[in-house]
Design goal:
Length: 300
């Protein structure tokens, strides 16, 4: 069946401050809490006629048939996870999410969604902070009057591939939020820029906001050409999304990923977050002793 293009609301939601959550609660407890959060977000999605496309790490991507469905789901998502998750901890670490969505044409293929609307929705999520719902002006115009009245303009943001900046709006989901000033709502938090050093033999690429992706494979046209017979021509890529790095396999033989202090992972047409430092092997498992290994290191 050929790919189908349709108008959808694309929504991204992820856990805000998950690093602090893991530091406070410890890996085991924090993983459980994040999993419970994703389960709650999944339930809300289904309750609003939505479809969960995928979950990656502490993030969920969903689609909805209308902008109103997405807006209502976004509000309920925040309400669903309003709880204290500090079992066994003396430090208050509330669980919060940030949500961004956009309604527009998207390409549906193989259970996934692609296209401009997906990119814009991801950008809206990147603009949101914990406890916020961010969307576009064009999406707000599609909302029912009651929901539209609960929105407000907050900023303009550049979108990759678009000549003009997009007006972005916040959907107010708490009564007390009405009293907050819109000015400066989306100021960048004071945090160091994330960087990832990807190295293969004498070749090295540093990913950051200026260079947000790298493609690796057997082809000499790749950013990092890898001399591995089992590698596909464009085997795998690493990209930066909302201050997090993800590795995406697009190969025939799959990609083996080893993150320090974690069990080796195998990806085939899948993706996963790179939360630490480690190694990558294209097509050949680590227990086979691969000689062509890529290393990745988070730069402080």
């Amino acid at each position: 069946m050929p790919p189908k293009t349709t108008n959808l609301a694309i929504l991204f939601a992820d856990v805000s401050g998950s690093t602090r959550l893991f530091e406070t609660l410890g890996d085991a407890t924090a993983r459980v809490k994040v999993a419970q959060c994703l389960d709650a977000l999944t339930e809300v999605t289904l309750n609003h006629s939505g479809t969960v496309i995928k979950t990656i790490g502490d993030e969920i991507m969903s689609t909805f048939p209308t902008a109103d469905d997405a807006a209502a789901a976004a509000c309920d998502m925040h309400e669903a996870i309003q709880e204290d998750v500090t079992e066994g901890s003396s430090t208050a670490t509330p669980l919060a999410i940030r949500v961004g969505f956009h309604f527009g044409p998207a390409l549906m293929e193989g259970g996934d969604v692609f296209g401009d609307a997906v990119n814009v929705a991801a950008r809206m999520a990147a603009q949101a902070k914990g406890g916020q719902i961010i969307t576009t002006h064009s999406t707000v115009e599609l909302l029912a009057p009651i929901m539209r009245a609960s929105s407000r303009f907050v900023d303009r943001a550049p979108i990759k591939g678009k000549k003009e900046e997009i007006e972005i709006f916040e959907i107010i989901w708490q009564e007390e939020d009405v009293t907050r000033m819109a000015t400066g709502l989306l100021q960048e938090e004071h945090r160091p820029e994330v960087k990832l050093k990807v190295k293969y033999n004498d070749l090295e690429v540093v990913l950051n906001k200026e260079r947000s992706s790298v493609v690796m494979g057997r082809s000499q046209a790749c950013d990092l050409p890898i001399n591995e017979k089992l590698a596909s021509r464009q085997h795998v890529r690493i990209e930066l999304r909302r201050d997090k790095f993800f590795i995406i396999d697009q190969s025939t033989n799959g990609t083996h990923v080893y993150v320090d202090n974690e069990a080796p992972a195998f990806l085939r047409r899948e993706e996963m977050p790179l939360n630490g430092n480690g190694r990558i092997s294209l097509g050949k498992a680590f227990d086979e002793g691969p000689s062509e290994v890529v290393t990745f290191t988070h730069v402080l």
